[in-house]
Design goal:
The protein has a two-stranded antiparallel sheet with strand order 1-4. The chain has a two-stranded antiparallel ribbon with strand order 2-3. Strands 5-6 form a two-stranded antiparallel sheet. The protein has 187 residues and is an alpha+beta fold. It has a single domain, classed as Cytochrome P450 (Cytochrome p450, Orthogonal Bundle). The chain is built from five helices and six strands. The protein starts with a helix and ends in a 13-residue tail after the last strand. Belongs to the cytochrome P450 family. GO terms for molecular function: heme binding; iron ion binding; monooxygenase activity; oxidoreductase activity, acting on paired donors, with incorporation or reduction of molecular oxygen. This is Cytochrome P450.
């Protein structure tokens, strides 16, 4: 939500898509509707690129000497994958510090471990076992929150002045939490 509040034009585009899909369903959204919401899916992917749930994947040990790109990894070396840095790598992502969901619209990049430029849940046999549930829940919750509430910043705060600093730990979180202020329901 912080990235959407920081980029209000993205909220408007998401509202348009959600309203169009929900209009055909008498105003409600169901889990199968997520497949018809490419911009919402792009928002989730872009959020996971910029703000992965954890900065490092679970450490792995090399079972044999291996070379990956230009790097020689000796047998028994402990390997940490820094997904936070991968999501900000300018050799992979143009304008990596900006929230641009459009970079995923019409592209077949997913975060299920097949596309190594976006692996917030890991990949292969050590992929996070909760990823399928997280995938369904994050999309459904985001759609519900966007459809149900008017999202605004506190009075006097401009979107581009928001503090987007992250607090690092085992998980990543905003250093300054968002404050929820009750407002009228959007539906």
């Amino acid at each position: 939500m912080a990235e959407l509040l920081h980029n209000p034009e993205k909220i408007e585009r998401a509202h348009e898509e959600l309203d169009q899909v929900a209009h055909g369903n008498e105003g409600t959204l169901q889990e199968p509707d997520i497949a018809r919401l490419p911009y919402l899916q792009a928002i989730v992917k872009e959020t996971l690129r910029l703000h992965p749930p954890v900065p490092f994947l679970i450490p792995h040990k090399a079972e044999s000497d291996v070379q990956i790109c230009r790097f020689q990894i000796p047998r028994h070396a402990q390997v940490l994958v820094n997904v936070w840095t991968m999501g900000r790598d300018p050799s992979i992502w143009p304008d990596p510090g900006s929230f641009v969901p459009e970079r995923f619209v019409g592209r077949e990049i997913d975060f299920k471990g097949r596309d190594f430029e976006l692996i917030p849940f890991g990949s292969g046999r050590r992929i996070c076992p909760g990823m399928p549930l997280a995938y369904r829940m994050v999309h459904s919750i985001l759609a519900f929150l966007l459809r149900s509430f008017d999202w605004k910043l506190e009075q006097g705060v401009r979107p581009k002045e928001m503090d987007m600093t992250e607090k690092f730990g085992i998980t990543l979180q905003k250093a300054t939490p968002l404050r929820a202020i009750p407002m009228k329901v959007r539906l």
